[in-house]
Protein backbone atom coordinates (compact mmCIF):
# COMPACT_ATOMS: atom_id res chain seq x y z
CA UNK A 1 0.00 0.00 0.00
CA UNK A 2 1.62 3.26 -1.16
CA UNK A 3 -0.36 6.16 0.28
CA UNK A 4 0.06 9.65 -1.20
CA UNK A 5 -1.79 12.94 -0.76
CA UNK A 6 -2.21 14.91 -3.98
CA UNK A 7 -3.59 18.42 -4.57
CA UNK A 8 -6.11 18.48 -7.42
CA UNK A 9 -6.79 22.23 -7.71
CA UNK A 10 -9.01 21.95 -10.78
CA UNK A 11 -11.42 19.93 -8.61
CA UNK A 12 -10.86 22.03 -5.47
CA UNK A 13 -9.71 19.10 -3.39
CA UNK A 14 -6.88 17.04 -2.05
CA UNK A 15 -7.07 13.31 -2.65
CA UNK A 16 -5.51 10.54 -0.63
CA UNK A 17 -4.56 7.69 -2.91
CA UNK A 18 -3.49 4.10 -2.53
CA UNK A 19 -1.42 3.76 -5.68
CA UNK A 20 -3.69 5.20 -8.38
CA UNK A 21 -6.95 4.56 -6.48
CA UNK A 22 -8.60 7.52 -4.72
CA UNK A 23 -9.58 6.36 -1.23
CA UNK A 24 -10.52 9.71 0.30
CA UNK A 25 -10.67 13.44 -0.25
CA UNK A 26 -10.74 16.83 1.41
CA UNK A 27 -12.53 19.57 -0.50
CA UNK A 28 -11.24 23.11 -0.02
CA UNK A 29 -11.60 26.71 -1.01
CA UNK A 30 -9.17 29.57 -0.55
CA UNK A 31 -9.95 33.19 0.29
CA UNK A 32 -6.86 35.37 0.52
CA UNK A 33 -4.39 33.47 2.66
CA UNK A 34 -7.02 31.29 4.38
CA UNK A 35 -7.84 27.76 3.25
CA UNK A 36 -11.07 26.19 4.49
CA UNK A 37 -11.75 22.44 4.42
CA UNK A 38 -15.56 22.15 4.55
CA UNK A 39 -15.67 18.41 3.83
CA UNK A 40 -13.47 15.35 4.21
CA UNK A 41 -14.26 11.72 3.54
CA UNK A 42 -12.54 8.35 3.46
CA UNK A 43 -13.82 5.15 1.87
CA UNK A 44 -15.74 3.42 4.70
CA UNK A 45 -14.15 0.10 3.74
CA UNK A 46 -10.80 1.64 4.69
CA UNK A 47 -11.92 3.27 7.92
CA UNK A 48 -9.97 2.91 11.14
CA UNK A 49 -6.55 2.90 9.44
CA UNK A 50 -5.60 6.53 10.00
CA UNK A 51 -6.19 7.63 6.42
CA UNK A 52 -8.20 10.68 7.48
CA UNK A 53 -5.35 11.74 9.75
CA UNK A 54 -2.82 11.23 6.94
CA UNK A 55 -5.03 13.20 4.56
CA UNK A 56 -5.30 16.24 6.83
CA UNK A 57 -1.59 16.06 7.69
CA UNK A 58 -0.81 16.03 3.97
CA UNK A 59 -3.00 19.08 3.41
CA UNK A 60 -1.34 20.98 6.26
CA UNK A 61 2.15 20.32 4.91
CA UNK A 62 1.30 21.11 1.27
From TrEMBL:
What residues does the N-acetyltransferase domain cover? 6-62
InterPro entries in UniProt: Acyl_CoA_acyltransferase (IPR016181), GNAT_YJDJ (IPR031165)
Q: Give GO terms: molecular function aspect only.
A: transferase activity
The organism's place on the tree of life at top rank: Bacteria
Instruction: Write down the Gene3D superfamilies for this protein, in alphabetical order.
Output: 3.40.630.30
Which keywords does this Swiss-Prot/TrEMBL entry list?
Answer: Transferase
Q: What is this protein called?
A: GNAT family N-acetyltransferase
Q: Which organism is it from?
A: Modestobacter versicolor
The beginning of the lineage is:
Bacteria, Bacillati, Actinomycetota, Actinomycetes, Geodermatophilales
